[in-house]
Amino acid sequence: MATTEAKPAAAAENGAQLEEAMRGPVIRPDDPDYDEARKLFNGMIERRPALIARCRDTADVIAAVNHARAEGLTLAVRGGAHNGAGLGSVDDGLVVDLSPMRGIRVDPNARTVRVEGGCTWGDVDHATHAFGLATPSGIISTTGVGGLTLGGGVGHLTRRHGLAIDNLLEADVVLADGSMVRAAEDENPDLFWAIRGGGGNFGVVTSFLFRLHPVGIVNAGPTLWPLERAGDVLRWYREFLPSAPEELNGFFAFLTVPPADPFPPELHMQKMCGVVWCHAGSEAEATEALAPARELEPALYGVQPMPYPALQSAFDALYSAGDQWYWRADLVDEIPDEAVERHVEHGAKAPTMQSTMHLYPIDGAAGRVGNDETPWAYRDAKWTQVIVGVDPDPARAEEIRTWTVDYWEALHPHSAGGSYVNMLGEGEGEDRVRATYGPNYERLAGIKGRYDPDNLFRTNQNIKPAKP
Ligand SMILES: Cc1cc2nc3c(=O)[nH]c(=O)nc-3n(C[C@H](O)[C@H](O)[C@H](O)COP(=O)(O)OP(=O)(O)OC[C@H]3O[C@@H](n4cnc5c(N)ncnc54)[C@H](O)[C@@H]3O)c2cc1C
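Above are the sequence and the flavin-adenine dinucleotide SMILES. Below is the predicted complex in structure-token form.
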């Protein structure tokens, strides 16, 4: 196999060769649409790749992977470009941009959906909702299917139907040598195990097949309480949620109420705490399950029936592309009183309207999968905790970063140890990646050594290939 050491100078001239091999365009720094094409969701991170290969099909992906390998260009793979650490692009290298690959086919009888590698979750929800079906994903519809799934995938349906990876049935993967293989329980099972949490380390996934569930109308929305009640609400939530029926998902948040509908004007710009609920059952069951939350007399009870895609896109406008974005995450088994106190202290100091802390439940169906059944090594943890500093103004980048890190450092001693690989912040380092995969790291490194021994796929939370 050719060396994968970067040689950026060769990139521009060899782009012509790649262009001939592809159906989609190859965008270079002197193209008028280069600046638009290289933008990432996180405005804090700027990358200037030598070539952006806009792939229309698997053949284009194979051509681009072969080109990067042959020319020794550092390769990045771009799905939805949402990665907080900017891992969907790379300076001076070649970006395999999957965004034109948006085909989706629902099989309502088999209850599956086949999804091309460049889809966003909004694309998928739109297609499956027409059949009254859905598969677990995240909480924002603009996020890419590729990155979210390959790292795990935590969202509104986690307690009821598991992580996104728990619903992945098979995938087509373009490997470092340019070949394409199917990964499933019955074919390349080691690769199939590795891509269910091991990120983009093993190849480019051009197509995913997911299991679907009957989820059409959900009973969803926020309940909000004044910040002064945050300690009581969080202590209630930590006991209530794990014992609630699995149809009920609810992530706890510190937030600032956006100055917009449907929030009442008197709450606009108030710092509050809340829980965003999603009940994937009947309205009567939701009302019964949420009775304890109503008894806590929230300042806003916003739960109502809505189409699942409406819930999935409810936060899109609040978190739009180009904002400054810095986050840190941990996995959490328990929330002791000392942790509640630290949460209340730091949650109250959120520096900007969009800065927030979420505790996403990962118990229920996700918690019943064994720690070594997929690379996600913390199935016994109950929450993924993410602290995220966000603001449109680049001048506030340092401020949101400092708040995030201070908050994270105060809570980290109460965590289970590792992180959620999709929510590692820029520059957290190899130790955090190892801690995140825990005892599964060595198996991942072995599989990496077999499928990508020269580490062509290294613009990711990288797993170092073990010698075969
Ligand atoms: C606003 C926002 C909301 C989010 N909400 C959630 C949430 O609710 N739940 C959750 O679990 N996560 C959430 N995330 C985190 C998200 O899972 C990660 O940021 C993820 O990396 C995004 O995937 P992407 O395809 O959009 O990103 P990209 O930046 O395009 O890619 C991320 C990584 O995945 C690799 N990759 C992407 N597609 C492929 C592919 N097809 N084949 C091989 N490698 C690929 C890339 O090489 C890169 O290393 C959110 C992120 C943001 C910014």
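Residues 41, 76-84, 87-88, 98, 117, 138-140, 143-144, 146-148, 150-155, 199-200, 204-205, 319, 422-423, 459-460 surround flavin-adenine dinucleotide (CB under 6 Å).
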